[in-house]
Design a protein that fits this description.
Blueprint: H1 4-12, H2 21-60, E1 66-69, H3 81-87, E2 91-106, E3 109-118, H4 120-126, E4 133-136, E5 147-151, H5 152-158, E6 165-176, E7 179-193, H6 198-201, E8 204-208, H7 209-216, E9 224-229, H8 235-245, E10 251-254, H9 255-258, H10 260-298, H11 300-308, H12 313-357, H13 378-395, H14 397-404, H15 408-413
Parallel strand pairs: 3-8, 5-7
Antiparallel strand pairs: 1-9, 1-10, 2-3, 2-6, 2-9, 4-7, 5-8, 6-7
Length: 415
């Protein structure tokens, strides 16, 4: 079907003559439509991949890849897990923790918060919070000194800074001659951290593990152990292996279970966005149909002459399939090059546009990720280009069939 003559004629039809300038304009719009669609798909999916990666790193920078906790909310004899975890090569670090919901009070301001007791020397093994301190020093959390480190938004809401006092009120009660009162303790602010996630900056407070144990009356027990893995995607398998090794004496969970709905929502949004933007490519591909139909109508006389000279209907189909394929390939290549370049430089291009127009697409006081992150995944690029080329190829079938059905006798009679 695709003999040299067929290829030559198909390429020849891509050039405009004076009387076919309108057809060439439609062809150009088809090429640009495919190019813009492919560029938009690659860029948007890269940005969404960047957001997903950024959010995952920020969330998992604070939460554990996996955790071991007691079924009743307390884990006794937690130091005995040291030997088990040392043998596990997939675990790079672990740290004990105590957590519970409390009320924080400073002056007339009150806020609910998650209070977490940690060991400063251990916490750096599983969390990035030690690197996110705005002011203060993590080592100032000393057992018995009752120091507290607050998230930046939480500290701002309470109106406190370094050295100020904060009252921690727990749901537990204490019986006194005056009646039943909630347990409370005054802590001194020794640091402020900023993760960049509202969930943590607004609702998290850290104290020493010993102070938290006295506050919650846990003695030598903890709420659980947080684990950091060499590969966070091995967490589900590690969870299953540890659960089997512990014989159900403790509960083992991982980040895919705790944040499953969040990351599933991101993946669903990515798929929906892919389908929506793919419609742009589909519309441009259907423009190829109209372009080729117009070319077939304009070239019926040429087709009739070629068929009288012995060209088969299959070869005629090949001419117009080559023409449509060239349009699709050119549009796809231009779109792929543009999309890859834009995805790789979006973190530079967007700030430049903001400086020129004096606007901020993601204001820092509204969005906690104030820059557009981008992560180019070549699998997405291959998938997008393959689908775009396939749609362009399918768009050539109907016009090519119509060209092959031209009857030479009828067409030459009108010439």
């Amino acid at each position: 079907m695709f003999r040299p003559l067929v290829l030559f004629i198909g390429i020849r039809y891509t050039r405009a003559r004076r009387r076919t300038r309108f057809i060439s304009f439609i062809t150009l719009t088809s090429v640009l439509g495919i190019a813009l669609g492919v560029t938009a798909l690659i860029t948007v999916l890269s940005v969404m991949n960047g957001f997903e990666t950024e959010l995952r790193e920020r969330i998992l920078g604070m939460t554990s890849h996996a955790s071991i906790s007691g079924w009743n909310g307390r884990l006794d004899d937690w130091r005995s897990f040291d030997k088990l975890l040392e043998k596990e090569k997939r675990v790079t670090g672990w740290a004990p923790y105590i957590e519970g919901q409390v009320m924080l009070s400073a002056g007339r301001r009150v806020s609910g918060s998650l209070l977490k007791g940690v060991l400063p020397d251990f916490e750096s093994r599983v969390s990035e919070v030690t690197e996110k301190l705005v002011v203060g020093d993590f080592l100032r959390l000393v057992s018995g000194d009752y120091g507290i480190i607050l998230g930046a938004e939480l500290a701002s809401h309470l109106g406190v800074s370094m050295g100020d006092k904060v009252t921690v009120i727990t749901p537990q009660i204490t019986s006194t001659p005056a009646g039943i009162l909630p347990r409370l303790r005054r802590f001194t602010v020794v640091g402020v951290f900023k993760i960049g996630m509202y969930e943590y900056d607004r609702n998290l407070a850290l104290v020493h593990l010993g102070d938290a144990a006295r506050l919650y009356r846990l003695g030598d027990s903890v709420s659980g152990l947080r684990l950091k893995l060499t590969d966070l995607f091995e967490a589900p398998q590690l969870t299953a292996d540890l659960s089997q090794a512990l014989y159900g004496n403790a509960r083992v969970t991982d980040w895919t279970q705790v944040h499953s709905n969040f990351f599933r929502a991101i993946r669903t949004e990515k798929r929906v966005m892919f389908v929506i933007l793919l419609l742009i490519v589909a519309v441009a591909a259907f423009n190829i149909v109209s372009t080729l139909v117009m070319v077939v109508t304009d070239k019926k006389g040429d087709i009739a002459i070629l068929m009288t000279q012995g060209m088969t209907p299959g070869s005629v189909m090949g001419i117009f399939m080559i023409l449509g394929t060239i349009i699709g390939v050119v549009g796809t290549v231009l779109g792929t090059v543009g999309g890859v370049l834009l995805a790789l430089n979006v973190e530079t291009i967007v700030p430049a546009i903001e400086r020129v127009f004096g606007a901020h697409f993601l204001p820092a006081d509204v969005y906690y990720i104030s820059e557009l992150p981008s992560k180019l995944v070549w699998t997405d690029v291959y998938q997008i280009t393959s689908i775009a080329f396939l749609l362009a190829l399918l768009a050539t079938v109907y016009p090519a069939i119509q060209a092959a059905r031209v009857k030479p006798a009828e067409e030459l009679r009108h010439e």
